[in-house]
UniProtKB/TrEMBL annotation:
CDD domains: AdoMet_MTases (cd02440)
PANTHER family the record matches: TRNA1(VAL) (ADENINE(37)-N6)-METHYLTRANSFERASE
All residue ranges annotated as the Methyltransferase small domain in the record: 12-106
Pfam families: MTS
Record-linked InterPro entries: DNA_methylase_N6_adenine_CS (IPR002052), SAM-dependent_MTases_sf (IPR029063), Small_mtfrase_dom (IPR007848), tRNA_Adenine-N(6)_MTase (IPR050210)
Example GO molecular function: nucleic acid binding
Protein name: Methyltransferase small domain-containing protein
Organism: marine sediment metagenome
Lineage, highest ranks first: unclassified sequences, metagenomes, ecological metagenomes
GO BP terms in the entry: methylation
């Protein structure tokens, strides 16, 4: 699909950042084509439930799950995450949410892209609200989000009684300002820890060793 939904560097970076155990029941809010859950499949976990509102993307996600032979480990649920009521809580919740506020920036001619990039169907407050509802008391939540909207994100965290545990800023180059960040939240951390920044490119314009290692994905999508 040349005009449809794509994933970029944020998906593999988020998948790499998420920490899991083999007993974890995991929830993805806003799965898109399922790429983060697919990338996460190399890590230990019991099961991933991935919720996606767009029927077209949920269908692609299901096909991607089947293509990678993960039907018994990853389930795609076509539903509005704001209404999602699974009747249980999760050890890990994660999301690569829409970054841009409604009315901000140029809307793509592709509805899939527009909904994935802009807060048309849900916003960061909706996502953190659902995270607060469905995360176990000892659970962990992981997100990737724009630096320019960090204050919105932190407001949403506080509003839902979550705490920031770790934050890692991602910069294109060593001397460039960060454009987005990776963040781990829980209910009990007393103080947030800022991890060393993640640098995507070296001085020659090649991926850094850390980036190269992460982007050698083994899933098909």
């Amino acid at each position: 699909k040349k005009k449809g939904y794509r994933f970029s560097v944020d998906a593999p970076l988020l998948a790499d950042f998420i920490q899991t155990k083999h007993t974890d029941e995991i929830l993805e809010l806003g799965a898109g084509n399922g790429i983060v859950s697919l990338l996460l499949s190399i890590k230990p976990f019991k099961h991933i439930t991935a919720v996606e509102i767009q029927e077209s993307l949920a269908d692609i996600a299901r096909r991607n799950v089947k293509l990678n032979k993960l039907e018994e480990k990853v389930s795609i649920v076509r539903e509005d995450l704001r209404q999602y009521q699974p009747g249980k809580k999760f050890d890990v919740v994660f999301s690569n949410p829409p970054y841009l506020k409604k009315g901000e920036g140029h809307l793509s001619s592709s509805e899939e892209k527009s909904i994935a990039k802009h807060e048309l169907k849900c916003n960061i407050f909706d996502i953190l609200k659902k995270t607060g509802e469905l995360l176990k008391s000892e659970g962990k939540a992981y997100f990737v989000f724009l630096v320019k909207r960090k204050e919105d994100f932190l407001q949403a965290v506080e509003r839902n009684q979550l705490k920031v545990k770790y934050i890692r800023f991602v910069s294109p180059r060593q001397d460039s300002p960060a454009n987005f960040f990776l963040i781990e939240c829980d209910f009990s951390s007393k103080k947030d820890v800022i991890l060393p920044p993640f640098i995507l490119y070296d001085d020659e314009g090649n991926y850094t060793l850390e980036a190269e290692k992460i982007f050698k994905g083994r899933v098909q999508a």
